[in-house]
Write a structure and sequence with these properties.
Number of strands of chain B: 14
Radius of gyration of chain B: 40 Å
Distance between the termini of chain B: 29 Å
Largest sheet of chain A: none
Number of domains of chain A: 1
Oligomer: heterodimer
Shape of chain A: elongated
CATH class of chain A: Mainly Alpha
Helix content of chain B: 55-70%
Strand content of chain B: 5-15%
Number of helices of chain A: 6
Largest sheet of chain B: 5 strands, antiparallel
Largest interface: A-B, 27 and 29 residues
């Protein structure tokens, strides 16, 4: 296996696990808040769940980018590409936006979701407002994903 | 297609008819009642006495919650069962049902049961106390009645037992171990009265507890041992348990009352609402004055109905005065096809009276955006079918119904855009696909940004309309019109590099913005703050770029669907059980993707409306129209 291919795979791995860490921490924060609220009122499970799950998207974006790299490299079957060292580095750097934007926005989205969950505990009718607040944070993960997708698309193997 | 006009309603009626009339309004569900400036009008008002109702509501609700359902339904089936229906005219009759007696009887049984469980707890405590002494195999009475000797039962820490024994060996005292457990030991010590001080001095060196059986001695009849006491307690306990069982059977028999109680609960709830609404009336000795709002379209209907109801009621319906405008409730009025999109407007907050209702403008964009964010025909089909099924089965009313209809629309949107830009359950229908964002994301990005630019321009146009209506006609046309001229011509000029007329239009637009943005009379101040206003172009730029999220979200659903399908393909190759695992992965994976994708697509499309679209023109803060009406928790009233 060439160094180029190894670097490209490193990129895919970074995208998946760094963005995944962001989501894991974010959901962890929101999940704790959700359990706290549900000890008082278990019937709120349904309306709290979307807020608990929203911080999970960064991990999905990271996974998605990793998958796009896997597709690009042909690792799922067929001819495995042989990128040069430069191309491998390019793919790796292309994975950075989704990885790091996902890491930080995941954590902060989790915090926004947690306070949203506390809000829903008091005002169950206003559940979409904290969802929109959380989406404001997610914008930057989406932009990170967008940059990664466009960069990957631009790299010719 | 805008905000529906409302009329101010003033009603004068005899005080005696007040409650009956409010009750009638509840059934009509078209009039909102407001408080009056009582002191200014020198009217009396009587706050409603609701505590009695609230207490009964609480008690009945407790009964409904604790009684088993007559036809138990679980999970999904429960969710899909509509509420039982009652005719609204039955309300009086339902109140005649002697619910008070039922509630009181049940509560009596309940408190008896609580008493019995309390007794059981007491017995269990006693058992806990006696159990360690089980091996004290002597009649308890034989431990009393000594004159010269002191007899003690002691609980001591296990690790202290040996030391205690050692220290007592020098004393003329007898120590026998009743039972030694892991942590604690129970011992019986007998010593002579005259040695009391010495022995007890030794005891005081340890952490130990004297156990006194004194309370039992008076209860004993003969030669009972500890084991006999325990047996006796056990018998008492099972006796109590049986009594509780008996009580619970009686309580369960109350389940037949549950449906009636549910109906009574809702009737009482509405009685309470009625009194609260009636208390808004301003009162003189014999008359009552009610004021509120009615949708203008229903005004004649209300007048006719009230005329039929009673001749003693004076009703006036008139246009609102300017000073009443702040109190005016807002009713959105859109054609039935667009009604579901009012959910989105409502979530942000209703528009102020006299401003623009954004529903009709956001509807097409929201419809398209959710389709672009998910772009999955199969998921769309599932969404549409599920929401239709729910509407048919549960017959939801009001907001829930509109939301379900909205989901139905969004399903259709996905079937369209899933076919054009995505696939069905991850499988593209190749000949129909216009753009495949995975292979070539750029056209999809351009499409997203183009839609975004159109919506940003629309919001600028709507802000022009708003400013124009507010009176700043020249500024509105020069500045907002300037942007509308400048931005498209700039865009097309950069794309096409010609014709020069575009450059001229852009300059005209710029001039409008520069010279009319500031209202200053000083020509220099006006010019320079106008130049600064041009800096606002960055907000148009960033708002348009924000729509690029449509590409990212659309891509994510499509790729995850593909991943699910390739996992299914791998699982399919397993011997024997491969197809079962395959089907499970297919169903679970796509369901997960649908849930996450719909959540993301819905929330982000909504955000685009709220932040990028509403920002320029929308004025929220309208008060919702809240007519007095029949509310329901457990049942549904029909007319």
């Amino acid at each position: 296996m060439s160094l180029g291919l190894t670097l490209a795979i490193l990129g895919a791995a970074l995208a998946v696990f760094i963005a995944g860490i962001g989501s894991a921490i974010g959901i962890g924060i929101a999940g704790r808040a959700a359990s706290g609220v549900m000890t008082e009122d278990p019937s709120k499970f349904g309306i709290i769940l979307p807020l608990g799950a929203l911080a999970g998207t960064q991990g999905i974006y990271g996974f998605l980018s990793g998958f796009l790299v896997i597709l690009k490299l042909g690792l799922l079957g067929g001819q495995v590409a042989e990128p040069t060292v430069q191309q491998g580095l390019q793919i790796m750097f292309a994975c950075f936006p989704v990885a790091f934007a996902g890491l930080v926005s995941g954590i902060h989205q989790g915090k926004v979701c947690a306070s949203g969950i506390y809000m829903v505990a008091k005002q169950p009718k206003d559940m979409t407002k904290p969802l929109v607040m959380a989406a404001l944070v997610e914008t930057y993960a989406v932009l990170g994903l967008l940059a990664t997708v466009l960069l990957l698309n631009g790299i010719k193997l | 297609m805008a905000i529906a006009p409302v009329k101010r309603m003033e009603v004068l009626l005899p005080r005696t008819e007040l409650e009956g009339f409010v009750s009638y309004l509840q059934e009509l569900e078209i009039a909102q009642l407001d408080p009056l400036p009582y002191e200014e009008l020198e009217l009396a008002s009587s706050p409603a006495e609701l505590t009695e109702y609230e207490r009964w509501l609480g008690r009945i609700n407790h009964l409904i919650q604790s009684l088993p359902e007559t036809e138990p339904r679980k999970g999904l089936e429960k969710l899909l069962t509509p509420k039982p229906k009652y005719s609204a005219s039955l309300r009086r009759v339902l109140l005649d049902y002697s619910y008070q007696k039922v509630v009181e009887d049940y509560e009596a049984l309940e408190s008896k049961r609580a008493q019995l469980s309390q007794n059981i707890k007491q017995i269990e405590k006693e058992e806990e106390f006696l159990k360690p002494l089980l091996l004290l195999d002597v009649p308890l009475l034989s431990l009393t009645g000594f004159n010269r000797c002191q007899l003690r039962i002691i609980e001591v820490k296990r690790e202290d037992l040996e030391t205690l024994k050692e220290q007592l060996t020098d004393q003329p005292a007898v120590l026998s171990v009743i039972e030694a457990k892991k942590n604690l030991a129970y011992i019986l010590v007998i010593y002579h009265q005259s040695l009391k001080e010495e022995v007890e001095a030794i005891f005081s060196g340890f952490k130990l507890t004297y156990i006194s059986l004194e309370p039992y001695f008076s209860r004993l009849r003969g030669d009972e041992k500890v084991s006999d006491l325990l047996v006796e307690l056990d018998q008492q306990k099972s006796g109590l348990r049986e009594e509780i069982n008996e009580l619970e059977k009686q309580m369960a028999s109350f389940a037949v009352h549950r449906p009636s109680l549910m109906a009574v609960y809702d009737v009482l709830l509405n009685e309470k609402q009625k009194l609260a609404a009636a208390s808004l009336a301003g009162l003189t000795e014999k008359t009552a004055w009610l004021a509120g709002w009615v949708p203008a379209a229903r005004a004649d209907y209300l007048a006719g109905k009230i005329n039929q109801y009673s001749q003693d009621i004076y009703l006036e319906l008139r246009e609102p005065k300017p000073e009443e405008k702040d109190e005016m409730p807002v009713i959105l009025d859109n054609p039935p096809l667009l009604k579901p999109f009012e959910v989105i407007t409502d979530l942000y907050g209703l528009p102020q009276p006299g401003t623009i209702d954004p529903t009709i403008y956001l509807a097409p964009f929201f419809f398209v955006f959710v389709g672009l964010c998910l772009s999955e025909g199969g998921y769309g089909l599932v969404m549409s079918l599920l929401s239709l099924f729910y509407i048919k089965k549960v017959e939801p009313k009001g907001g829930t119904r509109q939301f379900m209809l909205l989901l139905f629309y969004l399903g259709i949107s996905n079937m369209i855009f899933g076919t054009l830009f995505g696939g069905w359950f991850g499988f593209p229908i190749k000949p129909l696909v216009l753009i495949d964002p995975i292979a070539d994301p750029i056209p999809y990005l351009i499409l997203s940004l183009a839609l975004g630019f159109i919506q940003v321009m629309l919001s600028t146009f709507l802000s022009l309309v708003r400013d124009f209506k507010k009176g700043n006609k020249v500024t509105a046309i020069a500045v907002k019109g300037g942007w509308l001229l400048l931005l498209p011509s700039l865009l097309f000029y950069f794309l096409l590099k010609q014709p020069p007329i575009l450059g001229i239009l852009a300059l005209i637009g710029t001039a409008g913005i520069v010279f009319f943005s500031s209202s200053s009379r000083n020509i220099f101040a006006r010019f320079f703050s106008g130049l600064y206003a041009l800096y606002g172009i960055t907000s148009y730029f960033s708002d348009t770029l924000s729509y690029s999220r449509l590409l990212a979200l659309g891509l994510s659903t499509g790729v995850i669907a593909m991943v699910v399908n390739s996992l299914v393909q791998i699982a399919w190759g397993f011997p024997v059980v491969g197809w079962i695992i395959g089907i499970l992965i297919f169903a679970g994976g796509h369901l997960f993707n649908l849930a996450i994708g719909l959540l993301g697509g819905f929330v982000h499309s909504m955000r685009l409306q709220f932040v990028e679209f509403f920002g320029r023109f929308y004025e929220a803060g309208g008060k919702p129209f809240q007519p007095v009406k029949l509310v329901n928790k457990y049942i549904e009233f029909i007319r």
